[in-house]
Write a structure and sequence with these properties.
Length: about 240
C-alpha cells in the first residue's frame, strides 16, 4: 500500500468509521459507519412505525362504522327522538355514532328544523369525523417523501468526506502518494447505506399511507350514505 494510503491516517473520522465496519459488520457498526445523517432516518422510522400502529388501532371498523349501528339508531327512534342518555350512548359508540347523534340533537333542539338544517348539521359533523379519520396521515406522507431525501443527503455528505480524505492524501489512484481505490470503493458503499436506509423507511411508509387513505375514503363513503339515509328518517320524525 502507498505510504499516503488510508490506513496510515487513522485519525480521520471517515476512516475510523470504515474500520468499525470492517471489524464488526453488524447493524450498530453500519449505523456508526454511516455517520450522523442516519440518525434523522432512524427517528423517522420510529415515528413512522408509531403512526402506523396508532392508525391500525384507531381505524378499526368497530370504532368507525359498526355494521348495525344505523339500523339500531333508526329502530330506537321510530316513535320519536330518543332521550339524552340514548343519544349520549350513541355518540360514544363510534365516529358514525357522533354523526347520527348530531342529527338527533338538531331535531331535539328544533323540532321544526328544515331539511337543509338537518343536512347542514350532519355535514358539519361529517367534516369533523373526516378530520379525525385523516389525523396523522399527513405526517406519514411527509415521512414517505422526506426519508429518501434524507438518505440522499447522508450519502452526499459521506462521499464528500471520503473524497475529501482522499484528496488530503495527495490524490487518488495507485500512484505513489495516492489514495487506495479499494478503500475508496468501500467508503462509497458505506455512504450509500444512507440512501438504502432512506428507501427502507420510505417504501413501507408510502405503502401504509396509501392503504390508510383508501381505508379512510371507504369509511367516508359509508358514512355519507348512512347520513343521507338518516336525514330522510329524521325528516319523517319531524312531520
Amino acid at each position: 500500500m502507498a505510504p499516503g494510503g488510508l490506513r496510515h491516517n487513522p485519525g480521520i473520522a471517515p476512516r475510523r468509521r470504515l474500520a468499525a465496519l470492517v471489524w464488526s459488520p453488524d447493524l450498530l457498526s453500519i449505523i456508526q459507519a454511516a455517520g450522523w445523517p442516519i440518525w434523522p432516518l432512524i427517528a423517522c422510522s420510529v415515528l413512522g412505525l408509531a403512526l402506523v400502529i396508532e392508525r391500525f388501532i384507531s381505524l378499526k371498523t368497530a370504532k368507525i362504522v359498526p355494521a348495525k349501528l344505523l339500523d339500531e339508531a333508526i329502530m330506537v327512534s321510530r316513535n320519536g327522538v330518543p332521550g339524552p342518555d340514548v343519544v349520549k350512548q350513541l355518540e360514544q359508540n363510534s365516529v358514525l355514532g357522533e354523526v347520527l347523534a348530531s342529527g338527533f340533537r338538531t331535531l331535539s333542539g328544533n323540532p321544526r328544523a328544515s331539511d337543509e338544517d338537518l343536512r347542514a348539521n350532519l355535514e358539519g359533523a361529517g367534516r369533523q369525523a373526516a378530520a379525525k379519520l385523516q389525523r396523522y396521515l399527513g405526517a406519514l406522507a411527509t415521512i414517505a417523501s422526506a426519508a429518501p431525501l434524507l438518505g440522499l443527503l447522508g450519502t452526499v455528505i459521506g462521499m464528500i468526506e471520503i473524497f475529501g480524505s482522499q484528496g488530503a492524501d495527495g490524490g487518488m489512484g495507485v500512484t505513489p502518494g495516492g489514495g487506495n481505490p479499494a478503500q475508496l470503493a468501500h467508503g462509497i458503499s458505506i455512504a450509500l447505506y444512507n440512501t438504502a436506509f432512506g428507501l427502507i423507511v420510505a417504501i413501507p411508509a408510502l405503502i401504509f399511507w396509501r392503504y390508510f387513505r383508501a381505508r379512510v375514503d371507504d369509511y367516508l363513503l359509508s358514512m355519507e350514505l348512512a347520513a343521507e339515509r338518516f336525514a330522510r328518517h329524521l325528516a319523517t320524525l319531524r312531520r
